[in-house]
Specification:
This protein is an alpha/beta fold. It folds into two domains: 80 residues, no CATH class; 216 residues, 3-Layer(aba) Sandwich (Rossmann fold). The strands form five sheets. Strands 10-9-8-14-15-17-16 form a seven-stranded mixed sheet. The protein has a three-stranded antiparallel sheet with strand order 6-5-7, with helices on one face. A hairpin with a 3-residue loop joins strand 5 and strand 6. The two termini are 26 Å apart.
């Protein structure tokens, strides 16, 4: 399956590319899934302007798929990059900038913006770097957002969002009851979780720290309003987050919840999440993320969208036809 990447060559940085069939390891470079690949052959851009975001080509390698690549604005450097890519066995084709494939999340948000009343209050549980909220803002810029994340050090990634008056941050975990829990700090900040006991963490050499836990019920009480949309990515505790949201169930119109498929150790299995929300009057509406295991390619996790069964959106004309 093709994998989309964007290669950003920044000023005074060395950019590396490597043929994927020679044991390359793609390394994510930060927010927005910026990718850096390594090669013995390299080029150093010296003091050129930032890449032109419109200068994209389709990078294709036989048997390995296609990649969306942003090339540097500098003409000479762009030719050098293109020459290097061809030597590595890739073919470059210019992309029609008027056509763009929507991600599963963008597809849902675009549909929801067309068939529903725009949400006024959105809660992002497990905000991490704020990537989900950034995407939602493209479709619902007038909404108020509350980002909840137990890793306070990640707040810096959302500073530009928090500068506006309609986006706020709470450093806390979310569960079925308020209190305090030990957060296991993994090598990847998007994998920190509350699942390990102290004994398990010590045995594995994984550091932990105590963080406050709140509930969505408490959030609603303190805010004095109920969110129309809630996204939950609580690293395996998503079901407990829902169990602590009794005042939202039947009132919040949309829940986006992560669930495990082949990841059997998670209590928030596909069946558990589906059964819980179905029993509270919600219907499965969409899937916005598919996380596959890197080696087996088995569907490990998925993010499901549930919409209240009595929502007027179900009766919208756009949902009455396949066209």
């Amino acid at each position: 399956m093709a994998r989309a990447i964007r290669l950003n060559v920044m000023p005074e940085q060395e950019a590396h590319l490597m043929h994927p069939h020679r044991g390359a390891r793609w390394r994510e470079g930060g927010e927005g899934d910026t990718i850096c690949a390594r090669s013995r052959k390299k080029f150093r851009p010296a003091g050129h302007a930032d890449p032109d975001p419109a200068a994209h080509c389709l990078l294709q390698h036989p048997g390995h798929g296609m990649y969306d690549v942003g090339l540097p604005e500098d003409t000479m450097l762009r030719r050098l990059a293109a020459s290097l890519l061809r030597k590595l066995g890739f073919e470059l084709r210019r992309i029609d900038s008027t056509k763009r494939t929507l991600s599963p999340l963008e597809g849902f948000l675009e549909t929801w913006a067309q068939i529903s009343v725009p949400p006024k209050f959105i809660v992002d549980v497990g905000a991490n770097h704020g990537k989900w909220t950034r995407t939602a803002l493209q479709y619902f810029p007038e909404a108020s957002y509350l980002l909840i994340e137990p890793q306070d050090e990640l707040k810096t990634y959302s500073e530009e969002l928090l500068g506006s008056g309609n986006i706020r941050w709470i450093t806390a975990g979310v569960g079925e009851q308020a209190g305090e829990m030990q957060l296991s700090l993994m090598s990847r900040d998007d994998s920190a979780n509350f699942r390990l006991t102290k004994m398990e963490a010590d045995r594995l050499g994984i550091p932990q720290r105590a963080v406050p836990i709140t509930t969505l019920d408490e959030i609603v009480r303190s805010e004095g309003r109920i969110p129309e949309m809630v996204k939950i990515d609580a690293e395996g505790l998503d079901l407990r987050v829902l169990q602590g949201a009794t005042t939202l169930l039947g009132k919040t119109e949309v829940f986006l919840v992560e669930s495990g498929v082949c990841c059997l150790e998670l209590e928030n299995s596909f069946h558990a999440i589906y059964s819980f929300l179905s029993s509270h009057g919600y219907r499965l509406f969409d899937f916005t993320d598919f996380n596959r295991a890197p080696k087996s390619h088995a569907l490990w996790l998925t993010e499901m969208v549930f919409v209240r069964g009595d929502s007027p959106a179900w009766r919208h004309a756009r949902l009455s036809s396949y066209e």
